Amino acid sequence: MIEIKNIHKTFGDNHVLKGISAEFKEGICNLIIGGSGSGKTTLLKCMVGLHEPDEGSVIYDGRDFTRMNFQSRIEIRTEIGMLFQGSALFDSMNVEENIMFPLNMFTEQHRKEKLERVNFCLERVNLVDKNKLFPAELSGGMKKRVGIARAIAMNPKYLFVDEPNSGLDPKTSIVIDELIQELTEEYKTITIIVTHDMNSVMGIGENIIFLHDGEKWWEGSNKEITSTDNQELNDFVFASKFMRSLKKNK
Amino acid sequence: MIFHPLGKYILLLKAVFRKPEKWDIYRKEIFKEMNSIGIGSLGIIAIISVFLGAVTTVQTAFQLVSDLIPKSVIGGIVRDSSILELSPTISAIVLAGKVGSSVASQIGTMRVTEQIDALEIMGINSPGYLILPKIIAAITTIPLLVIISIALSIMGGFLAGTASGAVTTHDFINGLITDFIPYTFTVSMVKAVIFAFIITSVSAYQGFYTDGGALEVGQSSTKAVVISCIAILFSDYVIAQLLL
Fold this sequence. Notes:
The complex is a heterodimer of chains A (250) and B (244). With 250 residues, chain A is α/β, with parallel strands linked by helices.
């Protein structure tokens, strides 16, 4: 389980996170949702150590990540897989080298074993035989899938996903969402997804945290989200005419 | 005002020189960078060196109007100017433009496209992985480039001098071998190593702390070249004061 306790983060005069606490369980997709500027990506970055929170703790299975030094954090970081909004594939490496990179850095496996693992990961994300392509030769959806393959290469216990659907068409978005959900259930990872895509929320949001203005305003599941009386959440969920009409018909 | 970036630069260097995760991977990166910095810059260094030597010969001959000064002096002046100043300093300024801007924009692009964040999430010391191979490659290949530059500069001077009739072959070679102080070559190599460190570390710093998008990557690249050039000229003066 990952626990965050009373996380505060300020950039200059801008108090972005105001004492957020939550728990994220394994084997389900935990979603952090909220409007632009609500602090969800900052929260994710605080959790993985890309930002240092001003106050509060991030605890990975009883290990307080925020109090660790660089060397101690490496152990936890090798258990983390992350898919970035823009995929963040290394431009100078082909697909195979991108996925093999963490294996090269942190394992003593032979090349044959590493290649088997790479091919397994590529098969898992339906990209067989794309080993030698470079990121510039991939479509947005393929980049996301390579990003997922790289994130799962080390068999992570914790999977972080930042805006998995940004820049993708609705059909590809659903494929990516379903893939993340399948991997989460299959490997029992603790998966935390930052999104503002309502298809993702309704499709895979088993545990949802809604942030508004740097605070946690609501927590529940996709089954509960449409029936809440929280005004800010309703404004977010039913922002489009289409969603409002669905609610009216219901 | 200068202390904040200076502190950040020192802290970045501290992270750069942290123990590498795996030497094998770093070694491969070092060879890749040596190829890029060394072989990749050979052409431009060769061209500017030949012309530097040629211009030095022609202009020195133009100023030597007295019959009391032997023409062989031209060879000595071209030799010492090339070794002490022209080859290390001008090469370093050209390399600040070529290598420095490339390093800053490469690392800057990695920063704005979250590739550096991806490295850090994996538990990799990103300053070490990205910057250390470039520094090692530069401080090994740039002195070699300077040696080649010295040789080509003298050759350029010889060709220009003899072709224009400003100096005879005998006088030029006589000037080259007369009163040669090997220590000047040591000073030249010290300069080359320090300039190589400045070019890569300053440019990497500018790239590493890029914040924003494509526009900021371009700005970092420009700043890297400008600051590297100033730092090269300042350290050139300091080295000359200390070692000569």
